[in-house]
Amino acid sequence: MKSDTPSVAWLRCAIKPLDSMAMLAAEDHQKQLTKPAGSLGKLENIAVRLAAMQGVLFPTAANVSIAIFAADHGIAEEGVSMFPQSVTAEMVKNFSHGGAAICVAARFINAPMTVYNLGTISPTEGLANVVNCVIAPQTASFLHYPAMTEGQLALAINIGRKAVLTASEKQLEQEEKLDLFIAGEMGIANTTSATAVASVLLNIAPEKLAGPGTGLDAKGVSHKAAIIAQALQVHEKSLANSSTDPLMALQILGGFEIAALTGAYLTCAQEGMPALVDGFICTVAALVACRINPEVSDWLILSHNSAEPAYALLLESFGAQLPLLNLELRLGEGSGAAIAVPLIRLACSLHHEMSTFEEAAVSSSTVTMPTSEVAQ
Q1: Which residues are catalytic?
Q2: Could you tell me if residue 59 is left (phi over 0), alpha (psi between -120 and 50 degrees) or otherwise beta?
Protein backbone atom coordinates (compact mmCIF):
# COMPACT_ATOMS: atom_id res chain seq x y z
CA MET A 1 0.00 0.00 0.00
CA LYS A 2 1.02 3.61 -0.51
CA SER A 3 3.11 5.35 2.12
CA ASP A 4 0.24 7.66 3.14
CA THR A 5 -2.06 4.70 3.70
CA PRO A 6 -2.48 3.43 7.29
CA SER A 7 -0.35 0.36 7.83
CA VAL A 8 -1.92 -3.09 7.85
CA ALA A 9 1.40 -4.92 7.99
CA TRP A 10 0.10 -6.66 11.12
CA LEU A 11 -2.20 -8.73 8.91
CA ARG A 12 0.77 -10.95 8.13
CA CYS A 13 1.70 -11.55 11.77
CA ALA A 14 1.71 -15.13 13.00
CA ILE A 15 -1.44 -16.77 14.27
CA LYS A 16 -1.28 -18.04 17.85
CA PRO A 17 -1.10 -21.84 17.80
CA LEU A 18 -3.72 -23.91 19.55
CA ASP A 19 -2.64 -25.65 22.76
CA SER A 20 -2.40 -29.28 21.64
CA MET A 21 -1.67 -30.55 25.16
CA ALA A 22 -4.81 -28.90 26.55
CA MET A 23 -6.81 -30.34 23.67
CA LEU A 24 -5.53 -33.87 24.32
CA ALA A 25 -6.21 -33.50 28.04
CA ALA A 26 -9.76 -32.33 27.31
CA GLU A 27 -10.34 -35.22 24.92
CA ASP A 28 -9.09 -37.66 27.55
CA HIS A 29 -11.32 -36.06 30.18
CA GLN A 30 -14.34 -36.46 27.92
CA LYS A 31 -13.61 -40.19 27.73
CA GLN A 32 -13.73 -40.44 31.52
CA LEU A 33 -17.17 -38.83 31.94
CA THR A 34 -20.17 -40.96 32.88
CA LYS A 35 -21.65 -41.29 29.41
CA PRO A 36 -21.01 -43.30 26.26
CA ALA A 37 -18.11 -41.85 24.30
CA GLY A 38 -19.29 -39.23 21.83
CA SER A 39 -22.88 -39.32 23.09
CA LEU A 40 -23.02 -35.55 23.61
CA GLY A 41 -22.00 -34.96 20.00
CA LYS A 42 -21.08 -31.39 19.15
CA LEU A 43 -21.20 -30.36 22.79
CA GLU A 44 -18.10 -32.48 23.38
CA ASN A 45 -16.39 -30.96 20.36
CA ILE A 46 -17.14 -27.43 21.56
CA ALA A 47 -15.55 -28.07 24.94
CA VAL A 48 -12.47 -29.69 23.43
CA ARG A 49 -11.99 -26.92 20.86
CA LEU A 50 -12.34 -24.22 23.50
CA ALA A 51 -9.87 -26.04 25.72
CA ALA A 52 -7.33 -25.92 22.90
CA MET A 53 -8.05 -22.24 22.28
CA GLN A 54 -7.90 -21.19 25.92
CA GLY A 55 -5.06 -23.52 26.88
CA VAL A 56 -6.89 -25.02 29.85
CA LEU A 57 -8.53 -28.32 30.74
CA PHE A 58 -11.79 -26.64 31.71
CA PRO A 59 -12.69 -23.81 29.31
CA THR A 60 -15.31 -21.15 30.03
CA ALA A 61 -17.61 -18.87 28.06
CA ALA A 62 -18.59 -16.56 30.91
CA ASN A 63 -17.02 -13.36 29.58
CA VAL A 64 -18.30 -12.42 26.13
CA SER A 65 -17.98 -9.11 24.29
CA ILE A 66 -19.95 -7.97 21.23
CA ALA A 67 -18.94 -5.43 18.59
CA ILE A 68 -21.33 -4.35 15.84
CA PHE A 69 -19.85 -2.70 12.74
CA ALA A 70 -22.23 -0.50 10.73
CA ALA A 71 -21.77 1.18 7.35
CA ASP A 72 -23.65 2.22 4.23
CA HIS A 73 -23.02 0.93 0.71
CA GLY A 74 -23.00 2.89 -2.53
CA ILE A 75 -24.27 -0.15 -4.42
CA ALA A 76 -27.64 0.45 -2.72
CA GLU A 77 -28.38 3.03 -5.41
CA GLU A 78 -28.83 0.14 -7.84
CA GLY A 79 -32.01 -1.04 -6.09
CA VAL A 80 -30.55 -4.24 -4.62
CA SER A 81 -32.31 -3.91 -1.25
CA MET A 82 -35.92 -3.56 -0.14
CA PHE A 83 -34.98 -0.87 2.37
CA PRO A 84 -33.57 2.67 1.99
CA GLN A 85 -30.09 3.48 3.28
CA SER A 86 -31.55 5.59 6.07
CA VAL A 87 -32.37 2.32 7.83
CA THR A 88 -28.69 1.74 8.61
CA ALA A 89 -28.46 4.83 10.82
CA GLU A 90 -31.92 4.16 12.23
CA MET A 91 -30.76 0.72 13.32
CA VAL A 92 -27.62 2.18 14.86
CA LYS A 93 -29.91 4.35 16.96
CA ASN A 94 -31.99 1.29 17.80
CA PHE A 95 -28.84 -0.53 18.91
CA SER A 96 -27.98 2.42 21.14
CA HIS A 97 -31.46 2.46 22.67
CA GLY A 98 -31.38 -1.28 23.31
CA GLY A 99 -34.31 -2.20 21.08
CA ALA A 100 -32.75 -4.54 18.50
CA ALA A 101 -32.65 -8.32 18.66
CA ILE A 102 -28.92 -8.31 19.34
CA CYS A 103 -29.50 -5.96 22.27
CA VAL A 104 -31.98 -8.37 23.84
CA ALA A 105 -29.59 -11.27 23.25
CA ALA A 106 -26.65 -9.30 24.67
CA ARG A 107 -28.59 -8.57 27.85
CA PHE A 108 -29.67 -12.20 28.09
CA ILE A 109 -26.07 -13.46 27.98
CA ASN A 110 -24.78 -10.47 30.02
CA ALA A 111 -22.39 -9.33 27.30
CA PRO A 112 -21.30 -5.70 26.83
CA MET A 113 -21.94 -4.38 23.32
CA THR A 114 -20.32 -1.56 21.38
CA VAL A 115 -21.41 -0.24 17.98
CA TYR A 116 -18.82 1.11 15.56
CA ASN A 117 -20.20 3.44 12.88
CA LEU A 118 -17.72 3.38 10.01
CA GLY A 119 -19.85 5.57 7.76
CA THR A 120 -23.58 6.14 7.33
CA ILE A 121 -25.50 8.52 5.09
CA SER A 122 -27.38 9.83 8.12
CA PRO A 123 -25.32 10.97 11.15
CA THR A 124 -25.36 9.13 14.47
CA GLU A 125 -23.66 11.59 16.79
CA GLY A 126 -24.19 11.58 20.55
CA LEU A 127 -25.48 8.04 20.93
CA ALA A 128 -24.58 5.89 23.92
CA ASN A 129 -22.30 2.92 23.18
CA VAL A 130 -21.77 4.10 19.60
CA VAL A 131 -18.21 4.87 18.51
CA ASN A 132 -18.23 7.14 15.48
CA CYS A 133 -15.18 6.36 13.36
CA VAL A 134 -16.56 7.53 10.04
CA ILE A 135 -14.38 6.75 7.03
CA ALA A 136 -16.87 8.18 4.51
CA PRO A 137 -20.68 8.47 4.39
CA GLN A 138 -20.71 5.27 2.33
CA THR A 139 -18.60 3.16 0.03
CA ALA A 140 -18.58 3.93 -3.68
CA SER A 141 -20.92 1.95 -5.91
CA PHE A 142 -18.82 -1.01 -6.99
CA LEU A 143 -20.82 -1.20 -10.20
CA HIS A 144 -18.73 1.74 -11.43
CA TYR A 145 -15.77 2.17 -9.07
CA PRO A 146 -13.85 0.23 -6.43
CA ALA A 147 -15.93 0.30 -3.26
CA MET A 148 -12.97 1.57 -1.23
CA THR A 149 -9.64 3.23 -1.77
CA GLU A 150 -6.59 1.49 -0.34
CA GLY A 151 -6.56 3.97 2.51
CA GLN A 152 -10.23 3.43 3.33
CA LEU A 153 -9.76 -0.34 3.31
CA ALA A 154 -6.82 -0.03 5.71
CA LEU A 155 -8.76 2.25 8.05
CA ALA A 156 -11.68 -0.16 8.16
CA ILE A 157 -9.50 -3.20 8.80
CA ASN A 158 -7.71 -1.38 11.61
CA ILE A 159 -11.01 -0.42 13.24
CA GLY A 160 -11.85 -4.12 13.43
CA ARG A 161 -8.52 -4.79 15.09
CA LYS A 162 -9.02 -1.97 17.58
CA ALA A 163 -12.46 -3.30 18.53
CA VAL A 164 -10.99 -6.67 19.56
CA LEU A 165 -8.07 -5.18 21.45
CA THR A 166 -10.31 -2.69 23.24
CA ALA A 167 -12.76 -5.40 24.31
CA SER A 168 -9.91 -7.52 25.64
CA GLU A 169 -8.38 -4.59 27.52
CA LYS A 170 -11.70 -3.68 29.15
CA GLN A 171 -12.07 -7.24 30.39
CA LEU A 172 -8.50 -7.26 31.74
CA GLU A 173 -9.31 -4.10 33.71
CA GLN A 174 -11.69 -6.31 35.69
CA GLU A 175 -8.82 -8.76 36.19
CA GLU A 176 -10.54 -11.32 33.98
CA LYS A 177 -9.89 -12.66 30.52
CA LEU A 178 -12.29 -12.35 27.61
CA ASP A 179 -13.55 -15.83 26.68
CA LEU A 180 -15.40 -15.17 23.41
CA PHE A 181 -15.61 -12.30 20.93
CA ILE A 182 -18.70 -11.77 18.78
CA ALA A 183 -18.75 -9.44 15.80
CA GLY A 184 -21.93 -8.37 14.05
CA GLU A 185 -22.82 -6.07 11.17
CA MET A 186 -25.44 -3.66 9.91
CA GLY A 187 -25.57 -2.05 6.49
CA ILE A 188 -28.29 -1.80 3.87
CA ALA A 189 -27.17 -3.66 0.71
CA ASN A 190 -24.33 -5.46 2.48
CA THR A 191 -25.61 -8.88 1.40
CA THR A 192 -25.00 -7.71 -2.18
CA SER A 193 -21.47 -6.67 -1.28
CA ALA A 194 -20.79 -9.90 0.60
CA THR A 195 -22.21 -11.98 -2.24
CA ALA A 196 -19.94 -10.22 -4.73
CA VAL A 197 -16.86 -10.91 -2.58
CA ALA A 198 -17.90 -14.54 -2.15
CA SER A 199 -18.45 -14.90 -5.90
CA VAL A 200 -14.86 -13.90 -6.58
CA LEU A 201 -13.24 -15.89 -3.76
CA LEU A 202 -15.27 -19.05 -4.43
CA ASN A 203 -15.18 -18.62 -8.22
CA ILE A 204 -18.93 -19.20 -8.38
CA ALA A 205 -21.28 -17.22 -10.62
CA PRO A 206 -23.39 -14.56 -8.84
CA GLU A 207 -26.68 -16.13 -9.97
CA LYS A 208 -25.79 -19.24 -7.97
CA LEU A 209 -25.04 -17.21 -4.84
CA ALA A 210 -27.46 -14.28 -4.76
CA GLY A 211 -30.24 -14.62 -2.21
CA PRO A 212 -33.15 -12.60 -0.79
CA GLY A 213 -31.16 -10.79 1.89
CA THR A 214 -33.69 -8.63 3.72
CA GLY A 215 -36.60 -10.12 1.78
CA LEU A 216 -36.24 -9.65 -1.98
CA ASP A 217 -38.59 -11.61 -4.21
CA ALA A 218 -37.37 -13.75 -7.13
CA LYS A 219 -37.26 -10.74 -9.46
CA GLY A 220 -35.26 -8.76 -6.93
CA VAL A 221 -32.79 -11.60 -6.42
CA SER A 222 -32.32 -11.89 -10.17
CA HIS A 223 -31.67 -8.14 -10.40
CA LYS A 224 -29.13 -8.36 -7.58
CA ALA A 225 -27.27 -11.18 -9.33
CA ALA A 226 -27.26 -9.22 -12.60
CA ILE A 227 -25.79 -6.12 -10.90
CA ILE A 228 -23.03 -8.20 -9.33
CA ALA A 229 -22.28 -9.91 -12.65
CA GLN A 230 -21.97 -6.53 -14.38
CA ALA A 231 -19.66 -5.27 -11.64
CA LEU A 232 -17.41 -8.31 -11.96
CA GLN A 233 -17.05 -7.57 -15.67
CA VAL A 234 -16.20 -3.94 -14.96
CA HIS A 235 -13.45 -4.94 -12.52
CA GLU A 236 -12.35 -8.14 -14.28
CA LYS A 237 -8.71 -7.11 -14.72
CA SER A 238 -8.33 -5.78 -11.19
CA LEU A 239 -9.88 -8.93 -9.72
CA ALA A 240 -7.75 -11.32 -11.77
CA ASN A 241 -5.37 -12.01 -8.86
CA SER A 242 -7.97 -12.11 -6.09
CA SER A 243 -7.26 -15.80 -5.44
CA THR A 244 -3.82 -14.78 -4.18
CA ASP A 245 -4.78 -11.29 -2.99
CA PRO A 246 -8.16 -11.50 -1.22
CA LEU A 247 -7.75 -7.91 -0.04
CA MET A 248 -8.26 -6.80 -3.62
CA ALA A 249 -11.68 -8.43 -3.76
CA LEU A 250 -12.50 -6.83 -0.42
CA GLN A 251 -11.39 -3.38 -1.57
CA ILE A 252 -13.25 -3.46 -4.87
CA LEU A 253 -16.47 -5.17 -3.80
CA GLY A 254 -16.64 -5.07 0.00
CA GLY A 255 -17.92 -2.68 2.61
CA PHE A 256 -16.36 -0.81 5.49
CA GLU A 257 -18.07 -3.12 7.99
CA ILE A 258 -17.04 -6.28 6.11
CA ALA A 259 -13.43 -5.07 6.13
CA ALA A 260 -13.69 -4.36 9.87
CA LEU A 261 -15.02 -7.87 10.45
CA THR A 262 -12.08 -9.28 8.52
CA GLY A 263 -9.64 -7.31 10.65
CA ALA A 264 -11.40 -8.43 13.82
CA TYR A 265 -11.19 -12.13 12.95
CA LEU A 266 -7.51 -11.89 12.07
CA THR A 267 -6.80 -10.06 15.31
CA CYS A 268 -8.69 -12.66 17.34
CA ALA A 269 -6.55 -15.41 15.83
CA GLN A 270 -3.32 -13.52 16.43
CA GLU A 271 -4.27 -12.71 20.02
CA GLY A 272 -5.58 -16.20 20.82
CA MET A 273 -9.18 -15.05 21.20
CA PRO A 274 -11.99 -17.44 20.22
CA ALA A 275 -14.35 -15.71 17.78
CA LEU A 276 -17.97 -16.74 17.37
CA VAL A 277 -18.96 -16.11 13.74
CA ASP A 278 -22.48 -14.96 12.91
CA GLY A 279 -24.32 -15.54 9.61
CA PHE A 280 -23.70 -15.01 5.91
CA ILE A 281 -21.99 -11.62 5.86
CA CYS A 282 -19.77 -12.37 8.85
CA THR A 283 -18.86 -15.73 7.33
CA VAL A 284 -17.80 -14.04 4.08
CA ALA A 285 -15.53 -11.78 6.13
CA ALA A 286 -14.22 -14.86 7.94
CA LEU A 287 -13.49 -16.42 4.54
CA VAL A 288 -11.47 -13.35 3.54
CA ALA A 289 -9.52 -13.61 6.81
CA CYS A 290 -8.86 -17.30 6.21
CA ARG A 291 -7.68 -16.59 2.66
CA ILE A 292 -5.19 -14.10 4.10
CA ASN A 293 -4.05 -16.72 6.62
CA PRO A 294 -5.66 -20.20 6.65
CA GLU A 295 -4.70 -20.72 10.30
CA VAL A 296 -7.34 -18.15 11.30
CA SER A 297 -9.92 -20.93 10.97
CA ASP A 298 -8.57 -22.56 14.14
CA TRP A 299 -9.97 -19.63 16.13
CA LEU A 300 -13.40 -19.42 14.52
CA ILE A 301 -16.56 -21.10 15.77
CA LEU A 302 -19.43 -21.01 13.27
CA SER A 303 -22.53 -20.20 15.27
CA HIS A 304 -25.51 -20.90 13.03
CA ASN A 305 -26.55 -22.00 9.56
CA SER A 306 -27.74 -18.87 7.77
CA ALA A 307 -30.88 -19.13 5.68
CA GLU A 308 -29.14 -17.18 2.88
CA PRO A 309 -28.78 -19.72 0.02
CA ALA A 310 -25.08 -19.02 -0.57
CA TYR A 311 -24.18 -19.97 3.01
CA ALA A 312 -24.06 -23.69 2.22
CA LEU A 313 -21.46 -23.03 -0.47
CA LEU A 314 -19.42 -20.92 1.94
CA LEU A 315 -19.26 -23.82 4.39
CA GLU A 316 -17.25 -25.90 1.95
CA SER A 317 -14.32 -23.55 2.62
CA PHE A 318 -14.33 -24.35 6.34
CA GLY A 319 -13.58 -28.06 6.08
CA ALA A 320 -15.24 -30.35 8.57
CA GLN A 321 -16.49 -27.54 10.81
CA LEU A 322 -20.27 -27.14 10.84
CA PRO A 323 -22.39 -24.44 12.49
CA LEU A 324 -23.69 -25.14 15.98
CA LEU A 325 -27.32 -24.22 15.27
CA ASN A 326 -29.80 -24.30 12.41
CA LEU A 327 -32.66 -21.96 13.31
CA GLU A 328 -33.30 -20.54 9.80
CA LEU A 329 -31.97 -17.16 10.92
CA ARG A 330 -31.13 -14.39 8.44
CA LEU A 331 -31.14 -11.30 10.63
CA GLY A 332 -27.47 -10.47 11.02
CA GLU A 333 -26.39 -8.04 13.77
CA GLY A 334 -24.43 -10.84 15.46
CA SER A 335 -27.75 -12.14 16.78
CA GLY A 336 -27.24 -15.79 15.80
CA ALA A 337 -23.81 -15.84 17.43
CA ALA A 338 -25.20 -14.41 20.66
CA ILE A 339 -28.02 -16.95 20.63
CA ALA A 340 -25.41 -19.74 20.49
CA VAL A 341 -23.61 -18.57 23.65
CA PRO A 342 -25.88 -20.37 26.17
CA LEU A 343 -25.26 -23.62 24.29
CA ILE A 344 -21.51 -23.09 24.50
CA ARG A 345 -21.78 -22.32 28.21
CA LEU A 346 -23.72 -25.54 28.71
CA ALA A 347 -21.05 -27.48 26.82
CA CYS A 348 -18.41 -26.07 29.17
CA SER A 349 -20.50 -26.91 32.24
CA LEU A 350 -21.08 -30.49 31.10
CA HIS A 351 -17.36 -30.89 30.48
CA HIS A 352 -16.44 -29.47 33.89
CA GLU A 353 -19.21 -30.67 36.18
CA MET A 354 -20.09 -34.19 35.07
CA SER A 355 -18.64 -36.96 37.24
CA THR A 356 -16.00 -39.27 35.91
CA PHE A 357 -16.49 -43.03 36.10
CA GLU A 358 -13.99 -43.12 38.96
CA GLU A 359 -15.70 -40.33 40.91
CA ALA A 360 -19.12 -41.93 40.50
CA ALA A 361 -17.82 -45.43 41.16
CA VAL A 362 -19.42 -46.57 37.90
CA SER A 363 -17.79 -49.16 35.70
CA SER A 364 -17.31 -47.76 32.23
CA SER A 365 -18.34 -51.10 30.77
CA THR A 366 -21.82 -50.81 32.28
CA VAL A 367 -22.66 -47.75 30.20
CA THR A 368 -21.07 -48.83 26.95
CA MET A 369 -23.70 -49.04 24.20
CA PRO A 370 -23.64 -50.27 20.63
CA THR A 371 -23.11 -47.47 18.14
CA SER A 372 -26.66 -47.80 16.81
CA GLU A 373 -28.10 -47.20 20.30
CA VAL A 374 -25.86 -44.20 20.93
CA ALA A 375 -26.95 -42.67 17.64
CA GLN A 376 -30.59 -42.90 18.69
Answers
A1: 333
A2: beta
